[in-house]
Amino acid sequence: MSVPGWKEEELEIETVGGNLNITGKHTEDTVEEQAQWIYRGIRKADFQLSFSLPEHTKVNNAKLEQGLLLVEIYQEIPESEKPKKIAIESKQKALEHKS
Prior knowledge:
Blueprint: E1 11-16, E2 19-24, H1 30-34, E3 47-52, E4 57-65, E5 68-75, H2 91-98
Antiparallel strand pairs: 1-2, 2-3, 4-5
Keywords: Chaperone, Stress response
Organism: Salmonella enterica subsp. salamae
Protein name: Heat shock protein
């Protein structure tokens, strides 16, 4: 996610009930508040985004690098829900095992 000019302390990431919420609350520097701008290249406005996560999805970590917020998520399927292969036995195999 592109967040140019944002600092780590201005961003919040949380998971709530199957949703990933990303919130940005801009804190103006006192110098910026008092300055009169002719042109401001990057305008920062508070934002909140919410993404629905698939079942069994977990957020591993997050990084802020060069204006990009990287959120690492992975899906962890419980053993009880993973596909299982069932061996097929024939009468021929059963007779061979008894011998």
